[in-house]
Predict the structure.
Amino acid sequence: MKKKVIVGLSGGVDSSIAAWLLKEQGYEVEGIFMINWHDSRGLLKGDCPFDEDITFAEMVARKLKIRLRTVDLSTEYRTRVVDYMFGEYERGRTPNPDVLCNREIKFDSFVREALKHGADYIATGHYCRAETVATPGGIVNRLLAGTDRNKDQSYFLCQVSQGQLDNVLFPVGSLTKPEVRRLAVDLGLATADRKDSQGICFVGKVDLPVFLQQKLEAKKGRVIYVPADHHFAVWPDGLPDLSATTEELSGMTAPHLMNPGDGVTAGTHNGAHFYTVGQRKGLNLGGYKEPLFVIGTDTTRNIIYVGEGQAHNGLHRKGLFIRSNEVHWIRTDLAMEPGETRDYFVRIRYRQPLQAARLFAREDGYYVIFDRLQRGITPGQFAAWYDGDELLGSGVIHA
């Protein structure tokens, strides 16, 4: 009897080829299309709503001769992803809803729906790989980067658990994006030339301030210009000594705290919670030789700090801190204990090249110190650490 695989069929080319590959491998394949968002407020013109996506998913299902079901998970999505996002912005942090979407929806709500329909496995179109290995403590799941380094999406799965990787297949993880496109063209799939989705997972490209104003109030505040010669801590390249004290590590990970009086008022904004570190667009301030970038936000006092040029010291930091209750290990058998120090490769955003770093586990959390200064370390985002191709764990950047 054939094993049944249910694919999250999104109306994109990646999940389409995932379904075809599984059929070729002899599985009984079905698809489920998830409807996770209905509200169009804040969506940019020209962005594809879900009704267009479902049309493409239906065309692919007909072409591949597989059954397609539709499930509405919008209540779970709003509660577990969007409300979390609003809450993080209100606190002055910048969340990554795509990471939450995978943990809370694609690898939780969707899996439960698939199991109702007799799935032996579930599959997605993510560019990553999974395998099981035997360890002295038993069988464990490994999450590996995709073969296509330009498209590797393992970072978006940095918050999934061992249990969520059980019986999960990533059929396109060993292919490159051009190979997937060519297969879709050869097969005559309607999704062959569709552009990759952009913006917030299942919502689309949005005008973020307009989108956030569904819950967050706009309020005028000061934009403070901080000159390049402002005093910032200067850290040399290289990893810190293994014997670094917690006080020394705290200094390396501390954000650049600035007083409102340290700079001059350059303009006004409509709410500090609408901005994030490293942001350039949306400031609407001219008259400077180089573009202005957000180098800090203070949502309590509703202040934005900006600096001129990409080389501004306020944009670069040596390390970051993750609180102990926001540390997550996929490989729980490898979790660090307080007092341990290990060297891993870390990324703090999707598609960022992996950066050499040293992790110091302490009672209060993890101090992640990089070999080189990092641009735009942003509270609320996720730092993910790798050992070679394997994604081991992650955590929410606290500071």
